[in-house]
Amino acid sequence: MKRLLQLVAVVLMYRISWKKLFVVVAIMTTVGMVLQTHTLPYPMATWFLPPQTMVSSYKSLNGSTVHLTETLSLESAEQFQLVPTAPVVSLNSSTELVKSVPIVEERAQVSPRRNSSSRTRRKNAKIDKMNEKKVVFHPPPPRTVPTRLQRYIWSLPPDEALLFAKREIQNVSTVTDDPELYASLFHNVSVFKRSYELMETILKVYIYRDGARPIFHAPHLKGIYASEGWFMKLMEENRQFVTRDPKKAHLFYLPYSARQLETALYVPNSHNIRPLSIFLRDHVNMIAAKYPFWNRTHGSDHFLVACHDWGPYTVNEHQELSRNTIKALCNADLSEGIFVAGKDVSLPETTIRNPRRPLRNVGGRRVSQRPILAFFAGNMHGRVRPTLLKYWSDKDEDMRIYGPLPNRISRKMSYIQHMKSSRFCICPMGYEVNSPRIVEAIYYECVPVIIADNFVPPLNDVLDWAAFSVIVAERDIPKLKEILLAIPLRRYLVMQTNVKMVQKHFLWNPKPIRYDLFHMVLHSIWFSRLNQIQISVNATAPVALGLRMIIGKSSCSKLKTGIISSDGSNGDGQNEDFTTQEDSV
């Protein structure tokens, strides 16, 4: 037996051409795969590499249940007749949503008829495209049914709806506990919450389609002036607040970009920005001549959003645009006489380095990992920064105050790392009172120290900046370290916690979420419009009568969390004064 095995081994080693055998096997394998491609209903790749897909199972109305116990490839999922939309679970619903489990793979009966090669290729290409997208079946969000009160409010003319909202805010009930809002950050969290909910229910904005690119409808999403571009982008994409019917609108948006206006019209080194304001004046005059809405209120229900330093100066040539229109401006300087506190909105100036990832690097370190007392680095322009460097540059190890961050320093620790390692971040004004460092400090959880006289902090109409920032007068720069060290540790810990909590209100999300920066800016514009409205008893009588007829005299029910009483008081029977600055004037 042993000699027989040796003989077979000799024959295999010397009488068989292994190269020829390998070529023959390769040819046979290729031919076999081609035949299977033309004959089988599925390509072989789908057998060996099935893309995994999870599909939720449903219990149907007739009680039969589709049992799903394994992962399923996209091709196999096509064999099932799945419900195209997920049921909405409610108390009176006969459709029950069952826990998501994997699916048992069951192949449908395949016709023995052989498909043509072109049809098979098209099918394979379609399957490949589905594989690339990695489709996952998700049930749609449940639909909410409007209440009778909401339907009634939507039926009101815009002016009456605004009167209703103003009356609601005047009689707001106290908010004691809200998981989404941190009360310490707000002047009055109850007023803010009620106003925000009314905005979500009532507000409709009409966007003028007039105006050519790039000055209009072309958002600039990168750099220190990106706030105006992000608001324009998200506003024009929005479906909740935007209306195509101007007769239903409560506000009218002029979608221009001050940054794009400067790029398109300003002559470098001319030091003449009057052509920019003339261009905007002519555009507003065209709007007023073409549509009846501007002349109806002389522009008081119109608004613009501009973050460029020259934003306030582009409205000077049009008197109604300057005095009446709600202006959301980064350059919120009271000394110029253009920004009007109580009517205009202080817009946060945000630096966006990567428009595809606007939230990159957001977050910071805990207090124990912040060894630096105060930090600043930046170019030397304006009246404040040279004074800051004069007193604190290279004077104190705790005070890291620089001009442009030196290379010898940045090689060891970057600008962002400095902010994340500092307890206080100094935010002095530049050429104008606004600074992107304020929001940067909030992004990196560093308590901002604002040095800019006559500056209105962003969203100051609702946010209490004393809770999470330090405001230092320009004359007190020599005493800056003394001021910061005078803050007790316990107080600092509270402020730093508040910075973390307020952070979500300053984030540009590619898809806006509740209480983020897009909604906060829009709310401030809405709130400003409400503040312009004067309420009299006769003006609210038709609305109150309609509410009694729709909902009942004893109680007008609830719209989310607010309560309207027939006597105009809150739920405790107490009237609360809500006097705005404009009302008092």
Automatic annotation (TrEMBL):
Membrane topology: Single-pass type II membrane protein
Any one of the GO CC terms: Golgi membrane
Keywords of the record: Glycosyltransferase, Golgi apparatus, Membrane, Signal-anchor, Transferase, Transmembrane, Transmembrane helix
A GO molecular-function annotation: glycosyltransferase activity
Location in the cell: Golgi apparatus membrane
Residue ranges constituting the Exostosin GT47 domain according to the UniProt record: 203-484
Transmembrane portions of the chain: 21-40
InterPro entries according to UniProt: Exostosin (IPR004263), Exostosin_GT47 (IPR040911)
UniProt-listed Pfam families: Exostosin_GT47 (PF03016)
UniProt KW Transmembrane helix keyword: yes
Family: Belongs to the glycosyltransferase 47 family.
Protein's recorded name: Exostosin GT47 domain-containing protein
The species this protein was found in: Vitis rotundifolia (Muscadine grape)
